[in-house]
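Response to reviewer comment R2.3. The reviewers asked that we include at least one raw input/output pair. We reproduce the pair for Cysteine-rich secretory protein family protein here without editing.
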Amino acid sequence: MGGHDRARAEAGVPPLTWDSRLAASARTYAEEMARTGRFAHADQPHGPMREGENLWTGTRGAYRYDEMIGHWIAERRDFVNGVTPAFSRTGKWQDVSHYTQIVWRNTTRVGCAMTSNKRDDFLVCRYSPSGNVVGERTL
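Raw output as returned:
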């Protein structure tokens, strides 16, 4: 939570609350990715039940948790507070979408989980309400 809360404080938004339901959802999906080796966002319904999602994978044991989260937060360098999806200096929303989900002003809850297979670590964080809503600003 520390990395999330620091990034949010720097952006001027309140800290997130840990949500055990989101953490359980994140764990289930992290385990699926580790089992299948498929690194991709989960299929989710659109609408108010949709959970925001940040994913990370890397060589097993090579990265600390704060480094994993740090990769997402480092996207801040390309962030501009435009209307979604026009919120990246590069013109590619994907270049900042992990960071924007972390600091999304309307997101209030988070749950994360990490699991591994023989080769890789898989980190999943789930957020509610979901961020990166088209037509809205991050902050």
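The longest helix spans residues 20-36. The chain has a mean pLDDT of 95. Further pairs are available on request from the corresponding author.
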